[in-house]
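Section 3.1 - Work completed
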Amino acid sequence: MSSRIPPAADLWRRENNWVFDEEVAFQNRFNDPNSGLPIYQLTNEPIVSSNIYPEAPISTPDGKHFIFSRRMALSSHYTYWIADTETHWIRQVTDEENATAPIFNPKDGCFYYLDNANLKRIFLEDFSRELLFTIDSNLFPTHGALIPTGGLRSFDKTGRFAVLTAKTEKNNMVTALIDLEDRTVKTAYSDPEALNPHPQISQNVHSLLLIQVNNGIQYDKEGNLLTLVGEKGASLVACEIDGSNPVLLQVGFSLLERIQGHQCWVGKENKVITTTHRRKTTDAEWIQDQIVMISVEENIPKVISEGPGFTHIHTDPEGRFWISDCNKSGDIYIGSIETGKYKLVCHSKSSFGSAQETHPHPFFIGNKNIIGWNSDCSGIPQIYMTKIPDGFFNAIE
């Protein structure tokens, strides 16, 4: 039987760069010098704050709330917080030792997350939580066989099925499918080289599962990771959500073209958008400048934009626009999928270092008019956002 759990915190925190004093308020120096857009810093404590999965459904459809993670320096323990894009306030929503990132369920408008094998949800009206059920399966930590690593990653359109990444007792990464109605969990996709699968369910009426396979992984005899991907890079596989009928997408995975390793579904279509590396010959330097889209049905890649070193990628819910960052400058761009045109949003000033939190990982919040990203321009990774006026899109449509 389900039971309500009090909120993880009773109060909102005000860490943003909008000051209450009227004579200060929001200073002009926080506007981006190129676009003029106001850059709101939502977090300020000496804590690593970030969201490194642009493709994850971490925001409400109206764009009012979105989830991000926080951890102390040198710690692997995360807490999860919610931001209000209207007030710019933040609030802690999980306090469990083993909570994983909450994602939005379109069925009931709640955020769902795992605490070990306990499936819980967060109610937005008061941020109380509810234990829905404990997953009883030999694929879960109740039996010590499977440990959630990234938690829930994506729901299908109906909100009944969700995917998560996990490791078996033999340290193999698998993608599991949870059925919220039957309260069951099964392995949906298993490949010893799907170490960083970025599993995502399309929001199409015909739901498909997208998996990244890091081909050519190498370990030393102690089990330390030596090579994350081989010479051809990673590959992308689309399949039914139960893992059947896998299709190898014909993008990257060659000596002359690699996918960057960041991709997502395009709106509600069964099309995938990704960024790529390419070169003319095997002894030439790699060029990273293209955004590619591919339909699962046709399986023919199409270059939709060329320009800077596009890296992390996300699309708006309607599948009309993409947002990406440049790993050479840290700049953030928004572009049109139809026209291929793009425009600079802001200079994130992210260092793009080894730590994932120092990469912008820009993402749309709700619709296309609010975006968020990470930046360590202060010396510590923090969460930033801005609002995109409709006029911004006129130049690229």
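Second construct:
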Amino acid sequence: MANVLDTLMERGYIKQFTHEAETRELLEKEKVTFYIGFDPTADSLHVGHFIAMMFMAHMQKAGHRPIALIGGGTATIGDPSGKTDMRKMMTNETIAHNVACIKKQMEKFIDFSDDKAILVNNADWLLNQNYVEFLREVGVHFSVNRMLSAECFKQRLERGLSFLEFNYMLMQGYDFYVLNKKYNCKMELGGDDQWSNMIAGVELVRKKSQESAYAMTCTLLTNSEGQKMGKTVNGALWLDPEKTSPYEFYQYWRNVNDADVEKCLKLLTFIPMDEVRRLSSLEGSQINEAKKVLAFEVTKLVHGEEEATKAQQAAEALFGKGGDMSNVPTYEMGKDKLGSELLDILVEAEIVPSKAEGKRLVKQGGLSLNGEKVADFKKTLEEAEFENGEVLIKRGKKNYNKIVLA
């Protein structure tokens, strides 16, 4: 069995290990069961989750078995890692809905057939847990002094950390212990912001089960300036086509900075490394060819080849290469809205997230209607502006939408 660690390191996935030499030996000798946790805080996964699923997919392709753990139980508390304030608590109904949506999305990326991967929900063992028994069984293995020194708690102590959130580390550690007992799970993978929680799980398994356990963190998806990638003017870059259209998704990757192309090709596609290096070495205007490959491949993985092709054709049509304009994201507007303020229509169509953002675009000269810049906040949309029943909206340099009369 080939050692997937070399592939993961070459492509830039690995940030930290608990035991590097032992991890390498384990992955060489065994078919390892490992897990990654996903908290169902929304009804869709986003690009930050996608990199974790690529991590899982590489491991699965190398013969190892993933467990995708949906945090239906831990989501009732909320993870304080990387947060400056306490999360708003969700209802059990909302969590159940989000879990169902995420399960459906995951099956597009991970092969769950014939026990090749397992999907679990920690609500199954956390929600009916006896609190006193949990403290006796799990709490005894955790040092409060050590917990308070963990990075995920340090940044919250001055602003206030609830006891509710303080329990999160114990619960995540207990997840690893349960999976180790039930499925012989020996490794946890996760984002680098989860390092403290993951170490806690490794130590709990080693203390309670007297067995080896390992953790490995994945680099977070950041640009060359260290900022998290995956944000658009309308918020997060979702994997759900109803939340982020395949065209908008494609355009995001088509427009990444030159300095980020190589990293994205490594982390977000399965393109062989020789081809990644060739594409990344392109300079000047030629780097746009690499960006097109990146955009197509990532969109194909998330939305399928048909939608990726449509998005590519729409982009080519808008940038003067004769592609298919029918694939540009479209909003149908009733004639009763004629004469309404353009910014109100754009907010309703979710082309801009708010009227304030629309005004900012107008002020900066970043909003156009049929090729002409919009200069008036109160501009109305009139029937005469519809050419063949549609108008073309441009946001920024490369984001297009159509509005058609229904």
